[in-house]
């Protein structure tokens, strides 16, 4: 991971660039980083504000030998890697809100966008995009963003080296991802996701296309899916959707 790193001043989206490079044959582990994204993308078709020089806007190209249905595991591995990496640097209470948000002081500092290209039953490539608000002043965030998002600088009260963060995250990612590819094992990642989870044990609201349910988040499965207990006591598995946790 990271044996080839492409660094751009300004591009539309590192995920777009990574997908383009992957489709042209870029190797597993290739990394795209940009100082600024002019068309940063978030989940569910949202835009991801990515100003110059203050954040980490990065994508990793992966070519795991897995079925497309397993792609969500990559998001869990990445969330575990980002949380562990950030903890090493800032030692703060860094939490994971299932499935893909990293939370400090109840607000989001990082989002993960996993995109997949598959043929029939095998993955061609996966691009995992990581966006971290590092050194921006939250007063510059739009009002509605400020309520739900924060930056590392705002949390720890000092500027933090983006380079060190990238280094620690890639280090953790390398370890957790190779455990997965060599041993077909994401136990370690799931353990980390459980340990740092801000979702488990809480009442959650899950919105997806069909419905909105209120339930208690009780566990993560070995595959990284959320287990919830609904109001009639029935236990269900959640694959995706938008989760909100009370108070976060
Ligand atoms: C989310 O929480 O909605 C996911 C946000 C992902 C943002 C990152 S920034 C680097 C990469 N390039 C993009 O266009 N998006 C991801």
From TrEMBL:
It comes from the Bacteria. GO terms for molecular function: biotin--[biotin carboxyl-carrier protein] ligase activity. Residues 1-181 form the BPL/LPL catalytic domain. Keywords: ATP-binding, Biotin, DNA-binding, Ligase, Nucleotide-binding, Repressor, Transcription, Transcription regulation. It is an enzyme of class 6 (ligase). Biotin binds at residues 13-15, 37, 41-43, 108. It catalyses: biotin + L-lysyl-[protein] + ATP = N(6)-biotinyl-L-lysyl-[protein] + AMP + diphosphate + H(+). Its EC number is 6.3.4.15. Signal peptide: none annotated. Belongs to the biotin--protein ligase family. Acts both as a biotin--[acetyl-CoA-carboxylase] ligase and a repressor. This is Bifunctional ligase/repressor BirA. The lineage of its organism: Bacteria, Bacillati, Bacillota, Clostridia, Eubacteriales. The gene is birA.
